[in-house]
């Protein structure tokens, strides 16, 4: 239940954070990257019931976003979360690799849909958003890899 609470709680908190402190957008983008990891952990725990959590997150994003941003936010969230779910589901690699691979494919789609729908075409904005989101995911991947490397091998 902790993963589900962290996932839904993060969606709520990120929407408020972007509204209250927009000047910290790169911090919130890193957190958005971690939402992809949290969603994957919800799927590990609840299987395909993660789709219900994704729907809940989509509705919350719509209800909490500024009206101008709501449609772009929901479209980007819904499409990228479905890509993340699909890649995470069909990939048979270790958990840490599935977390990174699913985010590496869904995060660029999230960024492109969101900024494209808002008419934001500055390469610097796109690059900063992509890099910060992937940074959050990459930190989790590196920590999991380091942890796995320290685990004793048993026969």
Automatic annotation (TrEMBL):
Keyword list, A-Z: Membrane, Transmembrane, Transmembrane helix
Q: Which organism is it from?
A: Azospirillum cavernae
**Protein name as it appears in the record:** PreQ0 transporter
Transmembrane domains' residue ranges? 20-39, 46-64, 70-87, 99-119, 125-144
Which superkingdom does the taxonomy of this entry point to? Answer: Bacteria
């Amino acid at each position: 239940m902790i993963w589900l609470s962290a996932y839904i709680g993060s969606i709520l908190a990120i929407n408020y954070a972007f509204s209250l402190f927009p000047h910290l957008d790169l911090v919130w983008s890193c957190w958005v990257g971690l939402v992809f990891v949290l969603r994957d952990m919800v799927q590990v725990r609840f299987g395909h019931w993660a789709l219900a959590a994704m729907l809940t997150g989509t509705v919350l994003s719509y209800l909490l976003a500024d009206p101008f941003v709501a449609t772009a936010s929901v479209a980007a969230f819904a499409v990228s979360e479905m890509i993340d779910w699909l890649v995470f589901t069909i990939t048979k690699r270790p958990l840490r690799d599935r977390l990174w691979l699913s985010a590496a494919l869904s995060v660029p789609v999230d960024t492109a849909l969101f900024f494209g729908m808002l008419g934001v075409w500055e390469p610097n904005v796109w690059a900063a958003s992509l890099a910060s989101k992937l940074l959050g995911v990459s930190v989790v991947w590196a920590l999991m890899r380091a942890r796995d490397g320290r685990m004793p091998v048993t026969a």
